[in-house]
């Protein structure tokens, strides 16, 4: 395995384009509502330590997603890349768990000097698992709903500016918006019966607050513990619903944050 910078190119080399973490606290939301579901989508056991996913091309240009056990290596690479630094992500072959054809995410980059990205050719008599593919951007479903929530979490300030301070809040027993009521009821249910790891995730936010990401059957919620919440639903394509502070939301968010999985410091 090699980066794009430093090795003689051979057909069995992997030229790394990017990498992502697959852990209870951080995983590609496109794969599932929680960590076990994301692992299942790739045929992996949901080990607590997690995995790293290395996305690249072989010498013929074919797309591959290589699963490795060295989570720390991937985390270091991501931290360096985020700072604009170079990092040679070359995992030890002994840490490789599996090599999956295709990419689960859409990438706009490719390795120079080799054929354009394409799915690997089927091997005669081989297992030939269906290649991983990113979700169709022209349709709406669970994957697109989760990707929409990812975007809101990344661009919180932009989305928050579009919302008045006086936004709808649903009190217990009231249903001015049945969809929001259902989501809040499901979220309250997590306090009584904690969901699988990754359904509630907490990340750093400015001002000592936390950004919460909560997912459930057919819905995603993004919230700041000091502010409002946004909700996306499978059955309301492209719509972003808002939930104001009110008397109940702060308590709910605080309680969810206590259950949340957090990235390692």
From TrEMBL:
It comes from the Bacteria. Residues 110-140 are annotated as: Disordered. Residues 116-126 have a biased composition (Basic and acidic residues). This is Integral membrane protein. It comes from Streptomyces meridianus.
